[in-house]
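Hi there, hope your week has been kind to you so far. Do you reckon you could talk me through the fold, stretch by stretch? Thanks so much in advance, here it is.
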Amino acid sequence: MIRNRWAEASLYYDLAEMDRAKGNWNQALSNLTTAKQINQEAGDQELQMQLADACYRVYDTLGQTGQALAYFKEYVALHDTLMSAEKSKMIEELSIRIELLQRNEENLMLKQDIQARKVQQWILAGVVILGFLISLLIIVIMFQKRKNLRLLKEKAENEKLLADVPIEKMKVDQKLKEEELAKSQVELQMKEQELVYQTLLRLDLTQVNRSVQEKLLPFQHKFSTKAQQNEFLMVLRELTRDAEKDPLADFEFMFKQLHATFTLQLMARCASLSRVELQVCSLLRINLSTKDIARLLNISVGSVDMCRHRVRTKLGLDPKDNLTSFLITL
């Protein structure tokens, strides 16, 4: 029954992928929602991760940043869970392999000890009946040499296998490091997206407060007494106390937390960069578009393009060099 529910959920997921390819976003979301509900009964984590990734892409295309970020976090959590299980399995298999190699080495040593005792027995018998069994002794010695050669060959092969174990371990460690690096990069991207999202929210709030302040300020003259006017102004300032705050100040602080050396390296390359140019460089560093940068800095798109041109000139970049790619490498 659970297998059938998984197949049913997979079918809705395939339908959603077809709708997404056609640009039918609402129908795609409907099919994805149905697939997630069915998969809750099946309990397939890998399908749940695929559904979260598909939801993230649809909401991101629709411009619904909050929903997209939530599903992206769910995708990363499920991905980490599955990868942790796979790493545990690899480590367990490697441990079993090492144990088997150690047992083979012990068995080989035991065989060598047994063979050495047999040689001693044959030599003693040869001394006693040397004259009668001289030919037989030669045959036994030759047979023993062949056996020793075979044992030495087996020992060499086992030693080679044991020598390969550190190499395999190094490969596993390298893969783990690469996965940790990829995880760190994903976490950094999530923090950058959250930083932009929070900055945009603060910018919108500041603009709303300023608009409210501008529209309500003329009403102070409607009051007949100076005391009432002052009281009105105090209430208005309290309601719009965030109107004078600079939303980019918090952005610059949090950006320095994420990329501590970026501004220092940029200033070391060119100390004549202005604050606006540094802000544009920081926003380009997290791969924002010109339109989003213009919105955050409350300037026109043309002003952003002119600022980018000035930065390229001050940094001495070639025309073929991409400014965003250069800033990301710092």
About this structure: DSSP finds twelve helices and no strands in the chain.
